[in-house]
Structure formats: structure tokens, C-alpha cells
Amino acid sequence: MNKRSHPFASRPPVLALFQKRIDGDDALLHLASLRFKDCGLGTEFYSETPEELEKLLMFRPSTETPAAVHLKRGLDLFESGSPGMVLEFAERFRDRIFGMIIHDQTEVISHFDGYVSVLRKIDADLKSLGGSPYLFIEYAAGIEPESFTDLLKAIADLDHVSACIDIGHIGLRHIRDTFARVHNGKDIFSIKSIDPEVQDAAGEIQMAVGSALDGVLQVIEKLGRLGKPIHFHLHDGHPLAQAGAFGISDHLSFLDKIPIPFEYRGRRHLDPMFGPSGLSRLVRKSLRLLGPERTSFSLEIHPTGGRLPLGDVSFLFHHWVDKGNAERMNFWLSVLCENQKLVLKSCEKGELSEAARKDDHL
Fold this sequence. Notes:
Elements: E1 14-17, H1 27-39, E2 42-46, H2 50-57, E3 67-70, H3 82-93, E4 99-103, H4 107-110, H5 112-129, E5 134-138, H6 145-154, E6 161-166, H7 167-182, H8 197-210, H9 212-224, E7 230-234, E8 236-237, E9 250-252, E10 258-264, E11 267-270, H10 275-290, E12 295-299, H11 324-360
Parallel strand pairs: 1-2, 1-12, 2-3, 3-4, 4-5, 5-6, 6-7, 7-12
Antiparallel strand pairs: 8-9, 10-11
């Protein structure tokens, strides 16, 4: 089994999305750089071309903090130029990033052997570079989680290709399957918070939502046993959280609650899939199985409509007449830092429990 580790072995690196995602000029990236540096966050860039990544790396808070890049979402490894694109990123940035993330594909099901063969060829090419970053295959196409774990088992011997476990994607898939099993195939994502049936079905919805944590823990258990480095995309979600800026049900903060137009158990909100306690269990489980040297976390939380005064960074936006988007960016960055604290606290708990376990064996 491959035991190769990333270069941040003393503590698992914690990264976050490093993007604008809010309209404005490069002052927003300067703001992100300052806030990431203050928090000690690593950077996960989204880049479709090497030239785009070169520009983004100019805003990297520090060369000492870990960095990874998420390649374009529609990358199809069966297209002739795609493996070469992966190799180009690896060769050009191998001294500046430790990982590259791409989405999995539905062909994992329909062309399993062919997909594995492509990954084996990519792994051989990455190995020939020397010092190549990892290629992490993210669970994103919505296939059966069992098929995803089968894929990783089939490439367990590869040195440079491993998994990106997106806990939000896997959690939502588990919720959908759980709800459908007990409701004659009904899709929980067809329900909206304003629907009349929601109030009566709230208990059953939350029962399905509460099952997501165990579903993700099972995937971590299976893949963790392979002994390969794993990258994690961390974010929360809920089937009724469909009114966000991107119209999706996940990429929420672990501190978010889901507002509802009625009272449920004395509150006018629902809990998301994980929350801080679920996140803590996921982080500690990962560290127990993998150790910090084979674990990396990235907060993939999207912006909300909140605003936060610019304060000490207002000088970056003197040329802006309307500071609204700058304040929205500042708020989003504060959310990332708050969630980073949750992850780091969970890591500390994991370290303490591991130390206690070792003491028990002395």
C-alpha cells in the first residue's frame, strides 16, 4: 500500500477557496491574501488554465502555506488533451502546489476499466516528473459512493493518484437515497421549504438529514484503510437550502442554520447535515485512520449575502465608490476563518485522543 505523505506532516494542512466569487477588481484578491495570512489558511485555487493559476499565485499569502489547485470542473479524462493538461499543471507548478483536484466522471460506472487505465497512464507520467503533486479525484458526479470506493481500491497501488472526499456531495447523496427508500422513491430535493407538506414532513426530512454523517464516515472508513493520502472538501448542506446565490443545497458554513417558515421543536430553523459536532467527528475519524501526514482539508464554503465593515483593510478600496461587494467579500472571508477554527479545534481533539490512546497502551 502506498504510504507517501504530503509535505505538511506535522499537522494536516487546512486550506480554503481562494477566489473572488464576488464581483470586483483585484483589490478583492488582495483582501483575501491579507485575511488568509492573518488566519494561516492555505489556498485552494480554481483555475482552468496554467496562465490563470500563475496570476492567482501572485496573490498567495505566503510561499510557506500549502496550496492546491482545482482544475476545470468539466475536465474529461477521455478527451485527448485532458491528461496532457493535468501533466502540464503538474510540471509547471510542482514546486508550488501539493495537489491537483479534478471531478470524477459517470464513466466510472460505464467505462470502469478504461477510466482506471487512463489514471494508470497519468500516474506513470506524473511519476516520471519527479516531485509531482498529487492528483485527487473528487466525488462529484453523483455516482454510487460504493462505485467511487471501488475505483479507489482499483488504483490503491498508484503513487500519485488518490481521492478527494467531498463530504457535502456524499452526504447529500446519502440523504437522497435514505429518504427515497422510505418514501417510495420520492426525491427529497423536489421539496421546497415553502411547500405545504414540509411542516408535516419536517421530522422525516431531519431523520434523513441526520443519516448523512454515518454515510460519510463509512466512505472515510473504506478509503482510509487503503493507506493513501486523502484530500477533503469540507462544507455543510441541507436539501431545503436551495435559495442561496448559486441555487444549490450545500457549500454552507458548519455554523449555518436552515430557516423555515414554521416552528419545529420550538425553533424556526433546521440543523444542517453536520454542524460543528459532525465536522469534529469527521475530522477526528480521518486523523485516526490516516494520520496528519496523509490528510489535507479544504473549506469549500461559498459566499452568502452577509456584510462586514472593512475596518483595517479599507485602504484597499479607496478607489471604490460603492464598498458593498468589498464588505461582502470581507464577511465571506471571516466565515472561512471561523470554520477554520472549528477544523483546527477538531484536529487538537484528535491529537489529544490519539495521545490518550497511546498512553493506554504503555
